[in-house]
């Protein structure tokens, strides 16, 4: 059985070398995670799902309180302004330029702007002034309110998959910000997108944790980014019970153990090793906490 | 198949005593206190703080009554017990409740069950005693209902663990509550009638087969009713549905989670 390798490198500042993963970012209509800028810095494609536009419009300036909000929203000032993410011994430092002086940044920093490639969805949550702002920036708006059968996230994931050729799609990883919290039926619908697109790497993110699917078709190696995630973790058999799951690297490892709702599920577990392995007869959700200090 | 009746009367200020309403217990978990926590409190005969839930009431309840002295609010919202691992409750909060004579039960020796599971066990034992002394003839399952505040949000493994408590105690009515919505289990052993309290809940709702797929579910009263429809993760699950009628019925071959939004403005 082929092994699938996982690593939350999107929680760390981008390295100098070209990333092997092609990251896309979808922003949903929940509070923007505090580490949204680092996700943005990895993404080559950024999509706002309807009210996700409000969240970036309101929330991104709050992450940079000393900077004029409009300068963060616009890409117009990019030549005079920079936001850099530099890594010093693993700490994320945000550097920005005052007084519009040109700033030269060394060490592989990436400069990014908070204007999306597209806004897509039902358009029943995006505020009129926010929509107008992004239209004026030339952002395409895809109103799909005619399609009531799929969620906004599903529409965004479908768009990303259609936008990519097969070569890039094999390296594709879709990061979904604001995927958890709020209404539970929305959260369940977001989790269901992981199952419906089980051949695409999709990571659901909130301020507190991430969730990703570990398909039963592969055994899994999870390389823990211990500066950014852990130690709390879990494996959850959503949708169907597991007769046999085996793990290594956890405080409470499973050894050919059955899991199901109504019985044992692995929650409040702890990562002990830097490499976790998981093998199961059913699709599982892997979840790990995100450190407060990033 | 026997029908099970549901009504979120715990979201409305208490009406005169109604023999058909269950007795309520309240467990407060370690997430932000819902803004309607006082109305839940007013229904509960038993109130339990699960470890850091004590911090949430200590900090959060005074915020809901800004015109009243915080200490007076904290004295008013005094629990019957605080129970759990005791690794989240702040020392000054613990001391405050101990000084008020609240029993604090450290059950950290038990690493196999969550704080919520420990509190539900306690509530079941206590409500049994209360019911015996009341000499009611109600059946066990309709006798009481446990309301869990702060059950959703935060870490997903905690949320999944809380949902699992619904499945483990499937013969007890337990309602998970957050600011935005509630979740409850509809066991496959019964067909269900849900009486919508439209001044406080809805219209957004859903039915989710979390633990196992459903080969056949049938509903009435929803915008998108299911008619002998299969549901599963990877396929169809009922989310972003809308309640159209005051009475919803659900019948399924598998345990389902029912979820409905809570109105912002009550």
Automatic annotation (TrEMBL), chain A:
<dbReference type="InterPro" id="IPR036371">
    <property type="entry name" value="TPK_B1-bd_sf"/>
</dbReference>
<dbReference type="Pfam" id="PF04263">
    <property type="entry name" value="TPK_catalytic"/>
</dbReference>
<comment type="similarity">
    <text>Belongs to the thiamine pyrophosphokinase family.</text>
</comment>
<keyword id="KW-0808">Transferase</keyword>
<dbReference type="InterPro" id="IPR007371">
    <property type="entry name" value="TPK_catalytic"/>
</dbReference>
<dbReference type="GO" id="GO:0030975">
    <property type="term" value="F:thiamine binding"/>
</dbReference>
<feature type="domain" description="Thiamin pyrophosphokinase thiamin-binding">
    <location>
        <begin position="220"/>
        <end position="284"/>
    </location>
</feature>
<dbReference type="GO" id="GO:0005524">
    <property type="term" value="F:ATP binding"/>
</dbReference>
<protein>
    <recommendedName>
        <fullName>Thiamine pyrophosphokinase</fullName>
        <ecNumber>2.7.6.2</ecNumber>
    </recommendedName>
</protein>
<dbReference type="InterPro" id="IPR007373">
    <property type="entry name" value="Thiamin_PyroPKinase_B1-bd"/>
</dbReference>
<keyword id="KW-0067">ATP-binding</keyword>
<dbReference type="GO" id="GO:0006772">
    <property type="term" value="P:thiamine metabolic process"/>
</dbReference>
<comment type="function">
    <text>Catalyzes the phosphorylation of thiamine to thiamine pyrophosphate (TPP). TPP is an active cofactor for enzymes involved in glycolysis and energy production. Plant leaves require high levels of TPP for photosynthesis and carbohydrate metabolism.</text>
</comment>
<comment type="pathway">
    <text>Cofactor biosynthesis; thiamine diphosphate biosynthesis; thiamine diphosphate from thiamine: step 1/1.</text>
</comment>
<keyword id="KW-0418">Kinase</keyword>
<dbReference type="GO" id="GO:0004788">
    <property type="term" value="F:thiamine diphosphokinase activity"/>
</dbReference>
<dbReference type="GO" id="GO:0016301">
    <property type="term" value="F:kinase activity"/>
</dbReference>
<dbReference type="GO" id="GO:0009229">
    <property type="term" value="P:thiamine diphosphate biosynthetic process"/>
</dbReference>
<dbReference type="GO" id="GO:0005829">
    <property type="term" value="C:cytosol"/>
</dbReference>
<dbReference type="InterPro" id="IPR036759">
    <property type="entry name" value="TPK_catalytic_sf"/>
</dbReference>
<keyword id="KW-0547">Nucleotide-binding</keyword>
<dbReference type="InterPro" id="IPR006282">
    <property type="entry name" value="Thi_PPkinase"/>
</dbReference>
<dbReference type="InterPro" id="IPR016966">
    <property type="entry name" value="Thiamin_pyrophosphokinase_euk"/>
</dbReference>
<dbReference type="Pfam" id="PF04265">
    <property type="entry name" value="TPK_B1_binding"/>
</dbReference>
């Amino acid at each position: 059985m082929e092994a699938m390798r996982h690593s939350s490198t999107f929680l760390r500042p981008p390295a100098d070398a070209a990333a092997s993963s092609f990251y896309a970012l979808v922003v949903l209509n929940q509070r923007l995670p505090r580490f949204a800028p680092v996700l943005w810095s990895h993404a080559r494609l950024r999509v706002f799902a309807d009210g996700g536009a409000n969240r970036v419009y309101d929330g991104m300036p709050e992450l940079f309180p000393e900077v004029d909000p409009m300068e963060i929203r616009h890409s117009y000032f990019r030549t005079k302004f920079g936001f850099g993410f530099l890594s010093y011994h693993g700490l994320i430092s945000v550097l920005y330029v005052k007084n519009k002086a040109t700033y030269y940044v060394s060490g592989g920093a990436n400069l990014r702007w908070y204007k999306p490639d597209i806004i897509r969805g039902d358009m029943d949550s995006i505020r009129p002034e926010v929509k107008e702002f992004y239209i004026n920036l030339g952002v395409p708006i895809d109103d799909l309110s005619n399609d009531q059968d799929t969620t906004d996230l599903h529409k965004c994931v479908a768009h990303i998959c259609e936008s990519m050729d097969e070569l890039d799609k094999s390296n594709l990883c879709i990061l979904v910000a604001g995927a958890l919290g709020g209404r539970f039926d929305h959260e369940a619908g977001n989790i269901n997108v992981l199952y419906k697109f089980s051949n695409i790497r999709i990571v659901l993110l909130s301020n507190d944790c991430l969730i990703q699917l570990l398909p039963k078709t592969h055994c899994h190696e999870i390389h823990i980014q211990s500066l950014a995630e852990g130690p709390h973790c879990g494996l959850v058999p959503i949708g169907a019970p597991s007769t046999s799951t085996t793990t290594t690297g956890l405080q409470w490892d499973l050894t050919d153990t059955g899991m199901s709702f109504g019985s044992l599920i692995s929650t409040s577990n702890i990562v002990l090793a830097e490499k976790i392995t998981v093998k199961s007869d059913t699709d599982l959700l892997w979840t790990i906490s995100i450190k407060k200090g990033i």
